[in-house]
Design a protein that fits this description.
six-stranded mixed beta sheet, 3 helices, globular
């Protein structure tokens, strides 16, 4: 599953994957997309439930965060309001997704 990390989402989303122990590969992206980083979750190792839990928790942590899934067949789903169980059902259907945070992380001094 490919994930485009937009705006200020890169550090916090990768940290969420790391904390959940979900393996991924990070790739720099050079294209017309505004996402400088792409990560690919290694779904053969990570379970749909663990992946869904990270998606839902990451998005719920801040109102400025959005997750947009593109499922097989080009159906687009905005993950807002989904429970972990609902998101878990979608994980096997994801072709690619975007994680967007429109606000930078607050820096601690």
């Amino acid at each position: 599953m490919r994930i485009a990390l937009f705006k200020d989402s890169e550090a916090s989303f990768i940290r969420a994957l790391d904390e959940a122990g979900i393996p991924y590969e990070s790739r720099m992206q050079f294209s017309v997309m505004a996402a400088p980083t792409m990560v690919e979750i290694l779904q053969t190792v990570a379970t749909p439930g663990a992946i869904a839990a990270v998606f839902v928790a990451w998005q719920k942590a801040r109102a400025s965060r959005k997750i947009i899934l593109t499922l097989h067949g080009n159906k687009v789903v905005h993950l807002e309001g989904y429970s972990v169980d609902q998101a878990k059902e979608l994980v096997p259907l994801i072709d690619h997704m975007a994680a967007i945070d429109t606000q930078p992380e607050e820096k601690s001094d």
